[in-house]
DNA sequence: TGAAATGCGGATAATAACTATCCGCTTTGT
DNA sequence: ACAAAGCGGATAGTTATTATCCGCATTTCA
């Protein structure tokens, strides 16, 4: 079970978009070039972010993307769910219903005990993702990266932002 | 991103194996019939459990499986990792290295900030799974299911156990 | 006003992963 | 010796992921 590579791309794109001043935006082409990923396919991830309301899209020539809300109000979970969807990673096929000892007409008042545990774990995963927002990511990057790289990257982005 | 159906099967199989008295075991054929899943493919999941040390295998005619340890010492995580593997659900392709502003020879002293958050969430998921063991599952099932179904299922299993 | 750049949605492949089955082999109880 | 069982490898069928392409609508700018 692996998350799609688009999740990683979307998170890095949001980190970059968080560097933009309000009301400026960056194209899919620039984001793809910055991250070294195929533009057409990255566009699909950006479209998912747009549909989920994580980013705001500007159409037309010189169009592009910006964060739909302040970085402090956008969590990792928002981004991950935009790309991966909100369905639990565990799908219960209700195989308990195949128990040969079970009356065929029995109806279950509770979800399967196995599924409940798996869903709890899924909820813990999402809660962890919900606990980190893009402002926190920016702060971490600020600590991790050199002044030079940060400044150069910001310049690169702002030179291409509209 | 969906967990394999084999995860669900393996967990339900372990729940059944937990009903067996020590030193008795149940065949893949019986487990497959009980859960209404294809025997050949279920066998693959059981082989994974065996290789991971979750279950103990008895070879030869009248062979089969039993839990390798007491139910209280086997967690959901043990079962899930046996089938899904121990690799994180998030794979970092290190796309930060593609940043055009970055010197080509730069080496990173820390893992990518995005990956760290994703790995923390993965760890939270696994911690949640590690917090429930098969004895706890048995207790839950004991509360959830009717006396009749529990007794009938136990009889069905014991009739086929060796 | 028209050309160019951009995002969007659908269609289409290529690749990988998951699901499933089969077969020969070894082991073991009767 | 034989039958039933688990194991490992081989092989398909199906689904999901990755990737590309195309036409269309929108918008900027000359």
Automatic annotation (TrEMBL), chains A, B:
InterPro entries: TR_Rrf2-type_CS, Tscrpt_reg_Rrf2, WH-like_DNA-bd_sf, WH_DNA-bd_sf. GO terms for cellular component: cytosol. GO terms for molecular function: DNA-binding transcription factor activity. Pfam families: Rrf2. This is Rrf2 family transcriptional regulator. It comes from Croceibacterium xixiisoli. The lineage of its organism: Bacteria, Pseudomonadati, Pseudomonadota, Alphaproteobacteria, Sphingomonadales.
């Amino acid at each position: 079970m692996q998350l799609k590579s688009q999740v990683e791309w979307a998170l890095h794109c949001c980190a970059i978009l968080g560097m933009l001043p309000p009301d400026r935006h960056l194209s899919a082409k620039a984001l793809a070039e910055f991250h070294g990923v195929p533009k057409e396919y990255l566009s699909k991830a950006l479209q998912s972010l747009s549909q989920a309301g994580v980013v705001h899209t500007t159409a037309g020539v010189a169009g592009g993307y910006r964060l739909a809300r302040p970085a402090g109000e956008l969590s990792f979970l928002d981004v991950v769910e935009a790309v991966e969807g909100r369905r639990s990673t565990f799908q219960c096929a209700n195989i308990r219903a195949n128990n040969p000892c079970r009356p065929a007409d029995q109806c279950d008042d509770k979800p399967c005990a196995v599924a409940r545990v798996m869903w709890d774990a899924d909820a813990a995963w999402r809660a962890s993702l919900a606990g980190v927002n893009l402002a926190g990511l920016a702060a971490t990057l600020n600590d991790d990266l050199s002044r030079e790289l940060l400044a150069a990257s910001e310049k690169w982005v702002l030179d291409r932002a509209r």
